[in-house]
Amino acid sequence: MSQRNFTRTQVGIVGCGPAGLFLAHLLHRAGIESVIVESRTREAVEGTIRAGLLEHWVTELMRDMGLGDRMAREGHAHDGITLQYGATRFHLPLDELTGGKRVTLYPQHEVLIDLIAARLADGGRIHFGVSDTAFHDIETDRPRIAFRHPDGTPDELSCDYVVGADGFHGPGRRAIPAAERREYDRTYPFGWLGILAHAPLSWHELIYARHEEGFALLTTRTPEIQRLYIQCDPRDDIANWPDERIWAALHRRLETAGDWKLADGRIFQKGIIPLRSFVCETMRRGRLFLAGDAAHIVPPTGAKGLNLAVADVLVLSRALEAALRRGDESGLDAYPATALRRIWKAERFSWMMTTMLHVDAAETPFEHRIRMADLDFLAGSRNAQAAVAENYVGLPF
Ligand code: PHB
C-alpha cells in the first residue's frame, strides 16, 4: 500500500492558473510559503491556448515582480482599439483617453509558462496532475487539502489558510454549501465561434464589430497567427461550420467599412464557447478563500477574466500577509467586499460591451434602436469613449 504523505505549508492553493500562480508569487515576495496543487499536467496548463489582454497595471505588476522580460519582448502593446458598426469604423485611443495607459496582448498560457518557470526556479512547490482534490476542515484553524499524486499516492497539505483558485468547475466553490452561497448568474443566448489561422495581420489593432448578422472580433497571436471570433448559437455544433462558411461570415461581418479587406488563411483550430456572467459573492468560508474563475465568470467581450483573477489575489495576498505576519485578520474579513467592488464593475463592463455589440434575436425593435444609439453615442462622444477606455485598460485600485 502506498504511504500517505503530509506536508505543512502556510497557504495551500488549488489551481495553477493566473489566480493561483500570481498568488504564490505575491506570497513568496512577502516571505510566505505556499504549495499549489493542479489537476492538469504541466504540459496541459502550458499548452492550452487562451486569450490574454493584460490591463496596464498587470503588466506593471509583472515587471515589478521580475516576470516581465519575455512579455516585453514578445507581447504587443496596444494603445487603441477599433470599433465598428454598419459602415462606421472608429478608433478609440486608449492611451490618449487614460493619460498614457495601454493594454498588452500576451496570451494567458505565455503568462503561465513564465510564472511556472519562475516559481520552480524560486524553489516553489507545484504538484501537477493530481486527482481527488478536496478541501477539509475549512472552518478550523488547520484547514487541509487532500489529493492524490499521479502515481496514486495520497497526500495532504496541512495549512493556515486555503485558497480555491481552481476555476469555475473546481472543488473550491463547492466546498461551501450551496445553500450558503450567494450567487448571481446570467447566460447569454449567444456563443463565440473562435478560430486560430495561419494568416497575416489585417489591421494594426483589435476590431470589435457589430454586424446585423452578429458580433465579430479580429485579434491576433503573432504576426503569422490570427485569432478571430464570430457570434453564433451557443448550442451549435462546430461540425456545421466548415472553414469556408466561417471565412464567408468573417468577411461579411468585418468588411463593412470602406475598401478594407480581411486577409484569410488556413484554420488550424476552431471551437465554440458559451458566454456567461456569474458571481459567487460568498468568496470566503472559514479559512477557505475563492479567487478568479472559481468565484466569477465574465463573457470575453471586455477581456477581463485574467485581469480580474490577478486583482483578486493582489487583495488576498496583502490580507494573508497581514494575517500571517501580524495576526491581523481585518483584511481577510474585508476581502470579499473589497474584491467584489472591482468584480461587479468588471461584470458591468463585460455585460455592457457584450450587450452593445451582439445581436439578440429576442431584442425588441425599441431595444435594438437603443443599442444602435449606444454605438452612435460612443463613436461621437469623447466622454463616452473615455469611460470605455478607463474600464478597458483597467480601473485603478
Ligand atoms: C483574444 O485575443 O482572444 C481576445 C481579445 C480581446 C477580447 C477577447 C479575446 O475581448
UniProtKB/TrEMBL annotation:
InterPro entries: FAD-bd (IPR002938), FAD/NAD-bd_sf (IPR036188), RIFMO-like (IPR050641). Gene3D superfamilies: D-Amino Acid Oxidase, subunit A, domain 2 (3.30.9.10), FAD/NAD(P)-binding domain (3.50.50.60). Keywords: FAD, Flavoprotein. Pfam families: FAD_binding_3. The keyword Metal-binding does not apply. SUPFAM superfamilies: FAD-linked reductases, C-terminal domain, FAD/NAD(P)-binding domain. Residues 8-350 form the FAD-binding domain. One of its GO terms (molecular function) is oxidoreductase activity, acting on paired donors, with incorporation or reduction of molecular oxygen, NAD(P)H as one donor, and incorporation of one atom of oxygen. PANTHER family: P-HYDROXYBENZOATE HYDROXYLASE, TRK SYSTEM POTASSIUM UPTAKE PROTEIN. This is 4-hydroxybenzoate 3-monooxygenase.
